[in-house]
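Hey,

Quick one before I head out. I ran the complex with carboxymethyl coenzyme *A overnight. Inputs first:
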Amino acid sequence: MARTATLTIDGKTIELPIVVGSEGEIGIDISKLREQTGAITLDPSFGNTGACKSAITFIDGDKGILRYRGIPIEQLAEKSRFIEVAWLLIFGHLPKKDELARFSQRLTQNAPLHEAFKHHFEGFPVNAPPMAMLSAMINTLSCFHTHFLQLDDAEAFEEAAARLISKVRTIAAYSYRRSMGKPFIYPDPNLKYVANFLHMMFSEPYQQYIAPKEVEDALNLILVLHADHEQNCSTSTVRVVGSSKANMFTSCAAGVCALWGPLHGGANVAVLEMLESIYRGGLTPQQCIELAKDKNSGFKLMGFGHRVYKNFDPRAKILKESCHKVLNKLGVNDPLLDIAMKLEELALKDQYFVDRKLYPNVDFYSGIIMKAIGIPVNMFTVMFSIGRMPGWIAHWKEQHDDATARISRPRQIYTGPTITDYVPMDQR
Ligand code: CMC
């Protein structure tokens, strides 16, 4: 018999269907609640609200589990590459050889930007934040590929997905070059995804930068770990924008804007700034912990805590290990790593953090790795955006393909003035 939940409101009792996910999670379906009772649910910041059914990513925050299309993140981190993971997320299965070859070829073909883009970049001030440029330029793709605004067949969708994943990397590198006042470096069709990005970032017209394998692998790992995280702030943004039938490019540009904030993707920059401020003697690790516990300080321990993970963030675990390895291999001795480990040690035995189940998240160690491999701090959140692009596209597609999907439109409980008469200017 189908399970139901019983709700009694003002003496009226109704049965609400229970939806069960493939991992046994349950959700109470309240889609008829208002119709049946006149009431809505109130859940600011959506901590208890499922906005959709999704078959892309599974997280069990209490057990520290993250799986893309059922495959544990630990296996993908060890065995897979970013482009394979992108295909897995978007199309639902690991690519066969010919599928991966076709997709890779499409990525290569789509790496260059239309020459007119250069003029757009020149319009930005040299010190413009790369995240602002990234979002604006992804949106600008909508102007250059208008035939991809309607994606109603599989072929057009695959081409558009490849375009976006490939071009976001070129746009990201050009944003950095612009912010440094350096000439743009064209993509090299002989290089793979990550190596090509590093080439566009760091080559000079007179000298090509070929990334060492350790650097390429470290960046690949970061991209794999960031590729999707189900209904987080930026992905939900992409879905909300996409629910109005806005095109994929513009929906993903909105995702970049949401990711920029320091409580979300921007935390990787905030972590590094926090560690640097401790290093420069601004405050000790212990003072930093005390400040984070003081609700009046407005300060949080950046890179700590998560809405969903209440045990550990499996991505942080992988990155912590990788951080030590990468720094060792590159012979980098970064005092910020020691500070990070000290902060982690102090926080993990402090009752405030223990009681609230606050653990290091993905952003805690990723910045130290990116710094070690030469990625400038103002590009950290941009790297997160490149990594998250396949996830955004997968969610946009899942929603786009769902014939039952409706426009996202939350309700509210109004708390403003009741009916009030207009007062003419001379009587106010
Ligand atoms: N430092 C100090 N206190 C914290 C922190 C922190 N980093 N995170 C949460 N708390 C407190 C919070 O104030 C609340 O305290 P109380 O119960 O006394 O009111 C309690 O812990 C529970 O917080 P929560 O409800 O679990 O937090 P949330 O779901 O509203 O926010 C978060 C999650 C990630 C935004 C938050 O933990 C935070 O601001 N962390 C620092 C920023 C950060 O690292 N963000 C990256 C998140 S992971 C990658 C990504 O999403 O992009």
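The chain is about 50% helix and 5% strand.

Talk tomorrow,
K.
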